[in-house]
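Section 4.2 – Deliverable D4.2 (structural model, holo form)

The reporting period included a commitment to supply a predicted holo structure for the target in complex with NAP. Inputs used:
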Amino acid sequence: MHKNILIIGASTGIGFEMTKLFALNKENTVIAISRNSESITDFENLDNVISKNIDLASLSLKTDLEQFLNSFPTIDYVVFNAGKLINKPFLELTEQEILASYNINVLSAFSVFQVVLPKMKNPNSHVVTISSMGAFQGSVKFSGLSSYSSSKAALTNLTEMLAEEFKDSNVKFNCLCLGAAQTKMLEQAFPGYQAPVSAEKMAEYIVDFTLKAHQWLNGKIIPVSLSTP
Ligand SMILES: NC(=O)c1ccc[n+]([C@@H]2O[C@H](COP(=O)([O-])OP(=O)(O)OC[C@H]3O[C@@H](n4cnc5c(N)ncnc54)[C@H](OP(=O)(O)O)[C@@H]3O)[C@@H](O)[C@H]2O)c1
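Output (structure tokens):
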């Protein structure tokens, strides 16, 4: 059956791999949102991927998204995968850096979900948020990641809140707290570290989880990690 799948943060890393995997099923339409226009041209030869450049940090985010999604009356699955990592000692963080990480990692999720949730009318709709092990309660923490990990923790909590508020609707909400996967963001957080999991392998898990897990889970925060970090 045809499904509309929205991926927020699709241009690189795990989101890029997810977009290609979702698109393997030609019955799916994959709606791929990113800021970066260069890597998104890589989807041009996938005829069931519709990509759009929208900056999550833009003041016109809600309007931009509403206008673009006008032609999609229903959305079945959403993966909120975008993320902004700042790796800097706490005392050196600028206000701009703190705001930027909170803006991309959690505040933009409010806008995205306010636009998208009214379109999630089909039974068995599923929202998956992509958080981090650094935001998982009781996990090992790493210096320099205070704005990143604390903003991801807010996204994690927002997922639980939405699961409660929409528990009588068609939509389920779950959050995946990822461990290390080999991407440019990981290199920024832990320079030189080799993750045991590739971006593609992590994407495989998320795609499978998005399509199936809402049959059993709602409002769950799930660690997805083979290593520390
Ligand atoms: N890799 C890991 O080890 C790891 C571990 C824990 C959690 N995570 C989480 O997993 C997710 C994917 O991470 P990744 O490693 O694949 O990172 P990545 O390669 O840096 O990808 C991040 C994605 O977010 C998008 N994005 C960032 N700022 C944006 C903005 N202002 N507007 C629109 N899109 C924006 C990027 O698009 P542009 O390039 O176009 O800006 C890109 O598609 C992130 O949420 C990250 O926090 C990753």
